[in-house]
Write a structure and sequence with these properties.
The complex is a heterodimer. Chain A is mainly α. Chain A has helices spanning 22-44, 46-69, 80-90, 98-110, 126-137, 178-185, 191-196, 208-220, 227-246, 254-259, 263-270, 281-301, 308-325. Chain A has 13 helices and no strands. The longest helix of chain A is centred in the N-terminal third of the chain and has 24 residues, at 46-69. Chain A is globular and about 75 Å long. Among the domains of chain B are: 135-282, Rossmann fold, CATH 3.40.50; 367-445, Fumarate Reductase Iron-sulfur Protein, Chain B, domain 2. Helix content of chain B is 30%, strand content 20%. In chain B, helix 4 (175-182) packs parallel to helix 6 and helix 5 (184-198) packs across helix 6. The chains are: A mainly alpha, B alpha/beta. The interface between A and B is large, with 49 and 75 residues.
C-alpha cells in the first residue's frame, strides 16, 4: 500500500491554461515598440532619450506610489505601465521640458488609469489622456518641433532643461511637421521621407515603416487584432482619396494622409489598447471606421493640423457603447441580440 | 451547401494534444480490485434499483440492479463474487451515493454471463431500445446520458443522419482512438443497431486528423452499401461536443436549448457504439470499459480495460504515481472533474484518469489573477459565440439573472476555451458554474 503524503488539490476545470498572460502581452508590446524607440533616439538624440526616460519613469513612479497609498500590491511589474509610459513619451515633441513631461506622466497614470480603478478599467488610453492634458495646458510647447541637429548626441536643447513652471526657451530653429506644413503653408513632404521618418514630429511618430513592423510583429504573435489598424487605414485612405478626386489642389492624397503625423503610431499602438477598444470583430471594424472618419474630419476641416489623438479618445468613449450594441450571435439563436 | 466550406466549426482552440504517451499503447486488461463498488446512479436520470441482497453471490455480468422508469439503465456485476454490503459510497460530485459493494472471488475464472441475444437483422426498433437499456449502455464519452433514451424517436420527429463521434478532442485521452483501432469490427457491428432503432439512412463516423491510423482501420472495415461514411476532420477543441460536431459535419445549427433531433441528427460516441456491437449479440451488460490512465504524474501510463466500480486508489496504486502528484481528475484536462477523494469508483462515464504534477498545474499559481483587460480573446475562442468577458464581469457582481436572460448563460456547456485563453487567469468557467447553480436554485425556490 502506498502512503499518500501529498495533499491533492481540487480545482475547477480546465486544468490546463494556454495562451499568454497579461505580462507576456504587455512585454511583447514593449518589444514591438523598441525599433520605433531606437529610431526616435537616433533621430532626435539626447532630447528623445531624456523625454522617453522621463515619461516612463514618471508613469512607473506614479503607479507605484498610488498602489502604495491605496494599500494594493504594486502593479508595476506587469509591464502595462511601461507600455503606457513609452507610448506617452513617443507622442511628445522631443524637446519638451522635462518638468512638463513628468507632469503629463503623473496625469496619464493618475487621471487616465488609476482614478478609474487601474489596469482593465481605464475608459481612455492613458497615454493619450496625459498627452491631451499637456496639449491643453501647454499648447505652444506641444507644437514646437525641433529638427534633427547634427550635434543631437552631444547637446541637449535648452528647452529640455527649463526650470519647472518657467517657459522653455528654444534655441534651435523649429521645423514644421508635414501636416502643419501642408495645412498652413501648402508644403507637401515626399512620401519616402514620411515612410523613413526624415521629418520633424513627435518623438516616435516619424518612421512609419518601423511602426508597421512592430504592428506586424504583434499581429503575427496573435496578440493584436489586425482589424482596428486596417479599418482605420482603409477609411482614411478612402475618404482622402475621394476628397482628392474632388479637388487635388485643396486636399492631400491618401499616401500623405496615411504616413504623416501620428496616424501610424495611433492606429497601430494607441487605438488598439485592449481595454479601451471593442471586443467583437464587427465592433472593432466599426470603431476603426469611426476613428478613421474623425481623423479625416479633424485634419481637413478642423483648426488643428493633427487630429489622431482626439479621434482615438472619442473612439474610446464610444467603445463601451459599441460593445453594448454589438453582441455576438449566440449559436442556435436566430439573430444578433441587442442589449436593451 | 457551400462547397468551399471546410468541415469544421467556428472559433475553438488548439490546446497541446499530449496524446503521444498513450496513443500507441494497446488496450490491456486491468487487474481486479479486492473490493468493487457499483454506484446505482452512473447516468443522468433515475438511479437503478438493486435486485441483490447483502451476502448474495453474483456472477460476472449478472444484472444486479434494474432500471427504474424509462430514463434509467440496468447495472451488471463487474466480477463474480459476493455482495458484501449495500450502502453509501463517495462519488465524483462530492456527495455520498448508494452503491453495491462486491468482493470478487480470488479464484474465479471471471467468465461473463450471457443473456438473451438481440440480433440487428431480426429485432425491431423497440426491441433494440429495450436491449440497449437492459445492457446498461450510457454515453461513454463522459456525459452518461442513457443511450436508449436517445434512440427512441418521438412521434412526428425523424432522424436522417447518425453521427458516430470519434473526435476525441480532449488532450491526453486516447481511449476512443484505441477502441477505433482495435475494435473497428465492434463499431461496425454496433452501427446497424443504431440505424435500425432510429431509422437513419446515413451514418457518418467522424475522426479527427490526428488519428490517421484509426481512420484507415475504420475505412477498411466499412461494409459495402451500408450507408456508412467516414469523415476526417481538422483537429480542433471542442470538436467532440455533439452540437459542434453536427455543425461541422452537416452545417446544421441546433437551436438554443434544443437537441440534435431538432435538426434530424443523432450523435453517439464511438466507444458506446462499439460497446453496443459487442454486448447486444450476446445479451451481455457493461461490466468494464476502456480508460486512459495517464498524465505526467502516472508511471505506467496506458489504455486499460478497467472493471466498473474499481476504486480510484487501486487504479493509481497499480500504475504507480510520481512523488510530486498534485492533482487527479476524471476525464480530460479541459472538462474533467478534479477528484476530492480517492475512494470514488470508476463509473461508466469515466473516460480517463489523468494525474498532474506541480509542473503542469503551476501556471496559474505562479501568476496573480488580473482584472479583465477586455482583450476579447475569450470572445474569439467561445465555440457557441457567447461573450465570456461580459458574463465574467456580471458574475463578479452576482447579476446571475441577467447572465441567463440577456447573455444566454444556459447555452454554455463549460468547454473551458475561454478560461484556457484568458491572459488574466480569470476562472470564468467556475464563475459560470456557480451562476448556473444559483439560477437553478432560484427557479426551484421561486
Amino acid at each position: 500500500m502506498v502512503r499518500w503524503t501529498k495533499t491533492l488539490e481540487i480545482r475547477s476545470s480546465p486544468h490546463i491554461a494556454g495562451g499568454k498572460s497579461v505580462n507576456a502581452i504587455m512585454f511583447n508590446v514593449v518589444l514591438a515598440l523598441l525599433p520605433v524607440t531606437a529610431f526616435a533616439v537616433y533621430a532626435f538624440g539626447l532630447a528623445a532619450l531624456i523625454t522617453l526616460g522621463t515619461a516612463v519613469t514618471s508613469c512607473l513612479v506614479t503607479e507605484h506610489l498610488l498602489c502604495r497609498l491605496t494599500g494594493r500590491n504594486s502593479s508595476v511589474g506587469d509591464w502595462s505601465v511601461v507600455v503606457t509610459g513609452l507610448l506617452y513619451g513617443l507622442t511628445l515633441p522631443p524637446g519638451l521640458a522635462v518638468w512638463m513631461v513628468a507632469v503629463g506622466g503623473v496625469m496619464a497614470v493618475g487621471l487616465g488609469k488609476f482614478l478609474f480603478g487601474g489596469l482593465g478599467y481605464n475608459p481612455f488610453n492613458p497615454a493619450l489622456v496625459g498627452r491631451a492634458l499637456l496639449q491643453a495646458a501647454f499648447p505652444v510647447a506641444m507644437t514646437t518641433w525641433p529638427t534633427m541637429p547634427v550635434d543631437r548626441f552631444t547637446q541637449l536643447p535648452s528647452s529640455t532643461l527649463a526650470w519647472p513652471f518657467t517657459k522653455p526657451v528654444y534655441d534651435s530653429i523649429s521645423g514644421a511637421t508635414p501636416l502643419a506644413g501642408w495645412k498652413f503653408d501648402r508644403v507637401m513632404t515626399e512620401p519616402t521621407d514620411l515612410l523613413l521618418g526624415y521629418v520633424s514630429g513627435s518623438t516616435g511618430e516619424t518612421c512609419a515603416l518601423l511602426i508597421l513592423l512592430g504592428g506586424v510583429y504583434l499581429v503575427m504573435r496573435k496578440i493584436m487584432s489586425w482589424r482596428i489598424p486596417v479599418t482605420i487605414f482603409l477609411t482614411v485612405a478612402l475618404c482622402s482619396g475621394l476628397l482628392q478626386l474632388i479637388d487635388p489642389a485643396k486636399y492631400a492624397g491618401p499616401l500623405f494622409m496615411l504616413f504623416s503625423g501620428g496616424l501610424m503610431l495611433g492606429a497601430v499602438f494607441m487605438a488598439t489598447d485592449m481595454v479601451a477598444s471593442p471586443m467583437t470583430h464587427l465592433g472593432c471594424e466599426l470603431y476603426g471606421v469611426l476613428i478613421g472618419l474623425l481623423v479625416v474630419v479633424i485634419r481637413v476641416w478642423g483648426g488643428m493640423p493633427e487630429g489622431v489623438m482626439y479621434a482615438i479618445l472619442l473612439g474610446n468613449a464610444v467603445s463601451p457603447h459599441i460593445d453594448n450594441w454589438i453582441q455576438p450571435r449566440v449559436y442556435g439563436t436566430k439573430k444578433r441580440r441587442q442589449t436593451p | 451547401m457551400n462547397i468551399f466550406r471546410s468541415k469544421t466549426f467556428a472559433h475553438g482552440i488548439h490546446p497541446p494534444e499530449s496524446k503521444d504517451d498513450t496513443s500507441g499503447l494497446p488496450i490491456r486488461q486491468f487487474p481486479f480490485a479486492p473490493s468493487l463498488v457499483v454506484p446505482l446512479s452512473q447516468h443522468i436520470g433515475k438511479p437503478a434499483v438493486a435486485v441483490v441482497r447483502e451476502g448474495q453471490e453474483v456472477t460476472r455480468g449478472q444484472c444486479i440492479a434494474k432500471h427504474d422508469g424509462f430514463v434509467s439503465v440496468a447495472m451488471h456485476a463487474p466480477a463474480s463474487g459476493i455482495v458484501c454490503h449495500i450502502g453509501l459510497t463517495p462519488s465524483i460530485t462530492g456527495k455520498m451515493v448508494p452503491g453495491i459493494f462486491i468482493e470478487p472471488f480470488p479464484a474465479s475464472t471471471q467468465e461473463i454471463m450471457e443473456g438473451a441475444a438481440c440480433d440487428a437483422s431480426t429485432a425491431d426498433s423497440e426491441e433494440i431500445v429495450a436491449a440497449v437499456q437492459q445492457a446498461g449502455v450510457v454515453g461513454l464519452g463522459g456525459a452518461g446520458f442513457p443511450t436508449h433514451a436517445k434512440l427512441r424517436i418521438p412521434e412526428g420527429k425523424f432522424v436522417d443522419t447518425l453521427v458516430i463521434n470519434g473526435a476525441e478532442c480532449e488532450p491526453y485521452l486516447t481511449t476512443d482512438h484505441r477502441v477505433m483501432l482495435e475494435h473497428s469490427v465492434d463499431v461496425m457491428a454496433g452501427i446497424p443497431y443504431l440505424m435500425k432503432a432510429t431509422g437513419a439512412t446515413r451514418t457518418i463516423i467522424a475522426v479527427e486528423a490526428n488519428k490517421p491510423d484509426a481512420a484507415e482501420t475504420l475505412r477498411a472495415t466499412i461494409p459495402d452499401g451500408s450507408g456508412i461514411e467516414l469523415e476526417v476532420l481538422p483537429v480542433k477543441y471542442p470538436q467532440g461536443a455533439e452540437k459542434l460536431l453536427i455543425t461541422a459535419l452537416l452545417d446544421r445549427e441546433i437551436p438554443s436549448g434544443g437537441l440534435p433531433l431538432d435538426v434530424h441528427a443523432l450523435c453517439v460516441n464511438v466507444a458506446t457504439t462499439a460497446e453496443i456491437g459487442q454486448l447486444l449479440p450476446h445479451g451481455k451488460g457493461i461490466q468494464e470499459r476502456v480508460i486512459t490512465v495517464g498524465g505526467p504524474a502516472v508511471k505506467n501510463k496506458g489504455n486499460y480495460r478497467i472493471q466498473i466500480g474499481t476504486p480510484l486508489r487501486f487504479v493509481l496504486e497499480t500504475v504507480g504515481v510520481e512523488d510530486d502528484i498534485t492533482r487527479v481528475f476524471l476525464g480530460g484536462p479541459m472538462m474533467g472533474q478534479a477528484v476530492s477523494s480517492l475512494d470514488i469508483p470508476i463509473t461508466k462515464g469515466t473516460t480517463g484518469v489523468i494525474a498532474f504534477t506541480t509542473r503542469e498545474t503551476g501556471f496559474r499559481d505562479g501568476h496573480p489573477q488580473y482584472p479583465c483587460i477586455r482583450c476579447g480573446y475569450c470572445v474569439d475562442a467561445c465555440p457557441i459565440f457567447l461573450n465570456p468577458s461580459q458574463l465574467g464581469l456580471l458574475a463578479e457582481q452576482d447579476h446571475y439573472r441577467r447572465m441567463v436572460d440577456d447573455f444566454h448563460l444556459m447555452d454554455c456547456f463549460e468547454c473551458g476555451c475561454c478560461t484556457f485563453v484568458c491572459p488574466s487567469h480569470i476562472p470564468l468557467v467556475q464563475q459560470f458554474r456557480i451562476a448556473k447553480a444559483a439560477v437553478r436554485k432560484m427557479k426551484v425556490t421561486a
